[in-house]
């Protein structure tokens, strides 16, 4: 299987959030790799990852980090690939710190910023799928089916538990 998606995160502690993106990619049959790449703790690893991403065949990067979350923005500065940022929820500031760190990019280096936490990570997987589906009709159909199944799972009326 090809590996068009790179999931990167600043720490092992981000994985419980970021594996929501991985789970979506698994459901849709999209290949990915998952790596710990910290902007602050492993800057050389970050630079190498961004420098080689296109040549290695990656098409989209999903980047999650918490707190002073520079990883998605720094990755966007290093590669032309679309970078989807996931603000990881933090204890001190509930992830608002992560959100603002990722969202407020200067003109020229965009990061597509998702919601804070697990929903954002899952949506990052879906956003990556949507980008890849533009050039992959079979994936487009799987994504369409996935969306239809979600819609069909929503009841019309609430029930008493
Ligand atoms: C960030 O600091 C990581 O992305 C993580 O969300 C946060 C805390 O990291 P750990 O102290 O748990 O390694 O770099």
TrEMBL record:
<dbReference type="InterPro" id="IPR000031">
    <property type="entry name" value="PurE_dom"/>
</dbReference>
<dbReference type="GO" id="GO:0004638">
    <property type="term" value="F:phosphoribosylaminoimidazole carboxylase activity"/>
</dbReference>
<keyword id="KW-0658">Purine biosynthesis</keyword>
<feature type="domain" description="PurE">
    <location>
        <begin position="3"/>
        <end position="154"/>
    </location>
</feature>
<comment type="pathway">
    <text>Purine metabolism; IMP biosynthesis via de novo pathway; 5-amino-1-(5-phospho-D-ribosyl)imidazole-4-carboxylate from 5-amino-1-(5-phospho-D-ribosyl)imidazole (N5-CAIR route): step 2/2.</text>
</comment>
<keyword id="KW-0413">Isomerase</keyword>
<keyword id="KW-0456">Lyase</keyword>
<comment type="similarity">
    <text>Belongs to the AIR carboxylase family. Class I subfamily.</text>
</comment>
<comment type="function">
    <text>Catalyzes the conversion of N5-carboxyaminoimidazole ribonucleotide (N5-CAIR) to 4-carboxy-5-aminoimidazole ribonucleotide (CAIR).</text>
</comment>
<feature type="binding site">
    <location>
        <position position="41"/>
    </location>
    <ligand>
        <name>substrate</name>
    </ligand>
</feature>
<dbReference type="InterPro" id="IPR033747">
    <property type="entry name" value="PurE_ClassI"/>
</dbReference>
<dbReference type="GO" id="GO:0034023">
    <property type="term" value="F:5-(carboxyamino)imidazole ribonucleotide mutase activity"/>
</dbReference>
<protein>
    <recommendedName>
        <fullName>N5-carboxyaminoimidazole ribonucleotide mutase</fullName>
        <ecNumber>5.4.99.18</ecNumber>
    </recommendedName>
</protein>
<feature type="binding site">
    <location>
        <position position="11"/>
    </location>
    <ligand>
        <name>substrate</name>
    </ligand>
</feature>
<dbReference type="InterPro" id="IPR024694">
    <property type="entry name" value="PurE_prokaryotes"/>
</dbReference>
<dbReference type="Pfam" id="PF00731">
    <property type="entry name" value="AIRC"/>
</dbReference>
<feature type="binding site">
    <location>
        <position position="14"/>
    </location>
    <ligand>
        <name>substrate</name>
    </ligand>
</feature>
């Amino acid at each position: 299987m090809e590996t068009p998606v790179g999931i990167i995160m600043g720490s092992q502690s981000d994985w419980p959030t970021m594996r929501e993106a991985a789970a979506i990619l698994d459901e849709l049959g999209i290949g990915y790799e998952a790596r710990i790449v910290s902007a602050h703790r492993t800057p050389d690893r970050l630079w190498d990852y961004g420098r080689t991403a296109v040549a290695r065949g990656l098409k989209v990067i999903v980047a999650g980090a918490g707190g002073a979350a520079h990883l998605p923005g720094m990755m966007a500065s290093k590669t032309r690939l679309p970078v989807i940022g996931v603000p990881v929820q933090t204890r001190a500031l509930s992830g608002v710190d992560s959100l603002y760190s990722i969202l407020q990019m200067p003109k020229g280096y965009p990061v597509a910023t998702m919601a804070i936490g697990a929903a954002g990570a899952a949506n990052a997987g879906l956003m990556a799928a949507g980008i890849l589906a533009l050039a992959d009709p079979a994936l487009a159909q799987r994504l369409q089916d996935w969306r239809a199944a979600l819609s069909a799972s929503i009841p019309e009326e609430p029930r008493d538990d």
